[in-house]
């Protein structure tokens, strides 16, 4: 991480440089893997008001990304 890095604030705040949507077959296994690598959950599927299945995470430096899946 850069010495003066300011992580973006999702969904509002400091702008994002990029946002990744990663499609996974097994959300439980993918969740366990990314959190074991230091990601933290920002927005869970139960919080979605949309028909799509996704969860928003932040990597250890604070960059947001989504894990998406089809049921």
Features:
28% strand, 4 strands, single chain, 14% helix, 71 residues, 1 helix, four-stranded mixed β-sheet, 2,3-Dihydroxybiphenyl 1,2-Dioxygenase, domain 1, alpha+beta
What does the model show?
Strand 3 (53-58) and strand 4 form a beta hairpin. With 71 residues, the protein is an alpha+beta fold. It has a single domain (20-69), classed as 2,3-Dihydroxybiphenyl 1,2-Dioxygenase, domain 1, CATH 3.10.180.10. The model has no long low-confidence stretch (mean pLDDT 85). The chain has a four-stranded mixed beta sheet with strand order 1-4-3-2, with helices on one face. The chain is built from one helix and four strands, in the order E-H-E-E-E. The longest helix has 10 residues, at 27-36.
User: Terminal Cα separation, in Å?
Assistant: 36 Å
The percentage of residues in β strands lies in 25-35%
Shape category: globular
The tally of beta strands, per DSSP, is: 4
Low-confidence stretches: none
Largest sheet: 4 strands, mixed
Cross-sheet strand order for the largest sheet? 1-4-3-2
How confident overall, as mean pLDDT?
A: 85
**Superfamily (CATH H level) name:** 2,3-Dihydroxybiphenyl 1,2-Dioxygenase, domain 1
The string of secondary-structure elements, in order, is EHEEE
Named CATH topology: 2,3-Dihydroxybiphenyl 1,2-Dioxygenase, domain 1
Nearest-angstrom radius of gyration? 13 Å
Give the total of domains.
1
Please name the CATH architecture.
Roll
- Just give the CATH class: Alpha Beta
């Amino acid at each position: 991480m850069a010495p003066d890095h300011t992580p973006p604030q999702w969904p509002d705040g400091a702008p994002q440089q990029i946002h990744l949507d990663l499609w996974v077959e097994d959300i439980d296994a993918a969740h366990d893997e990314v959190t074991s690598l230091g990601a933290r959950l920002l927005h869970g599927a139960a919080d979605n008001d949309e028909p799509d299945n996704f969860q928003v995470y932040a990597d250890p430096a604070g960059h947001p990304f989504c894990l998406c899946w089809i049921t």
